[in-house]
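Supplementary notes for students who missed Thursday's class. We covered one full example, reproduced here. Read the sequence, then the structure, then the short commentary at the end.
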Amino acid sequence: MNERFRGLGVALVTPFRTNGQIDYAGLEKLIDHQIMGGVDYVVSMGTTGESVTLTNAEKQELLAQTIGFVRNRVPVVLGVGGNNTAEVVETIGTFEMDGVDALLSVSPYYNKPTQEGIYQHYKAIAQVSLRPIILYNVPGRTGSNMAAETTIRLAKDFKNIIAIKEASANLDQMGRILKYKPKGFMLISGDDALTLPIIAMGGEGVISVVGNALPQEFSALVRSALKGDLVTARCEHLRLIEVIDLLFAEGNPGGIKHVLKVLGICGDTMRLPLVNISEATGDRLYKALADAEVVKL
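Structure (token representation):
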């Protein structure tokens, strides 16, 4: 079952119309672009999806529409997380889970819990979830790191905790997870730029941002790396590295939404407090896309 989440997963943006409402026509076009580009699964309402700006009603409708547009062609992962454990547990129970294949849940942010607090938070989620759980460690956003020992403890104690999306950029920490994890537990890259080295260490893929716009190109990198074809994977990595760096120059998802607009997939509207990237960064991104032979100058 875990094999469904091996390879290229994409943290979908949430397209908005210029009036701020969710653009479901844009979402359908985006999802078709992913699937035709060869992604292995999609993630709805992660960080890239601006989930913290969505109302509860919007989240329910967005999930239903996403499942409908996917049409069982690839697995769907639902992002559900927060820093109030009881509220996260309650929220999980409000979603219609038909069509949801797993949950992606971020480590509690802002509160800065201890490692024991992080463990107990995920224990509470694991005890109520009817779907497999992918942990998500992203210290740059949460303000605290989930140690390798905590990840391994959770992986060993709960069979429905099947993977971790690691975005700590700490390869030593990831190496410890890979060395001591139970069989079948997957380490998934949370950084596009580190996907190749993480897979080379033993990781199982990536949950990507750049894959929104370039699913075919990035899936080529991921699949080559997973097959051990590091020559091809290295070539794709170096071809896309400038684009990936610039995507995050002014924060996420501003960069990727700009590229999606350039490619004619959906608009680049975001909800405050996020704003569009500057014209200068947009120009640099376009040049990087041209250098990668994605668009023409």
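Commentary. The chain has twelve helices and eight strands. The longest helix spans residues 230-247. If anything here is unclear, bring it to office hours.
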